[in-house]
Design a protein that fits this description.
2 helices; membrane; transmembrane helix; transmembrane
């Protein structure tokens, strides 16, 4: 009886270790995926900062984008 309990403890510890390892691997993969997205956003931000170094140039860009979206909205309204 004592022998069976020791085997169950060993099996349970290996099972728990496997589950923890799998969860750790999943968390690590999720972290790496998130880290790559953050890296892409950081590179994109640096590119934007290099292309539009001043606040005025950034505001002009956003104004142009807003105007473009408004024009697209008007075109969609006329098509509907």
């Amino acid at each position: 009886m004592h022998f069976d309990f020791e085997i169950l403890v060993v099996i349970a510890s290996f099972t728990l270790q496997s589950v923890v390892s799998i969860l750790g691997l999943l968390i690590w993969h999720e972290f790496k995926r998130l880290q790559s997205k953050v890296d892409i956003l950081a590179i994109h931000r640096l590119d934007c900062m290099n292309l539009f170094p001043t606040k005025e140039s950034q505001l002009r860009l956003w104004t142009r984008l807003d105007d473009h979206e408004k024009r697209l909205g008007r075109i969609e309204d006329t098509l509907l």
